[in-house]
Amino acid sequence: MPVKNKIALFRGIVRNIIFATNIIAILLLFSSFLSWRVSPLKTNLFSYIGIAFGFVFFLNISYLFLWIAFKKWKLAFFSLVSLLLCYHPIATFFPMNIFPEKVPGNSLRILTYNV
Prior knowledge:
Elements: H1 3-34, H2 45-51, H3 53-69, H4 73-85, H5 87-93
Helix pairs in contact: 1-2, 1-3, 1-4, 3-4
């Protein structure tokens, strides 16, 4: 077997392994999304996966950037769609108050330091 074929075979295997781990990360993201919907009284599996929501979110963002860097647009599309489907939990977990509501001038603001 020529060297070029071995390198191409190795690249294909590595790409498939990375894609498989990306699919696992997407499934974990959807499972952590279910922790918002499924009561822990029914099953507590999704609650435990939901604890890792932030880590799984950043893992999926990393895969999205990886596929964009390698110009694999179809694979980047999978990661992007999974992130868009989980928009509500992401927006709740990482709130971005870009347009805050106006606070009346005579309101009292309290800052606490909870240790």
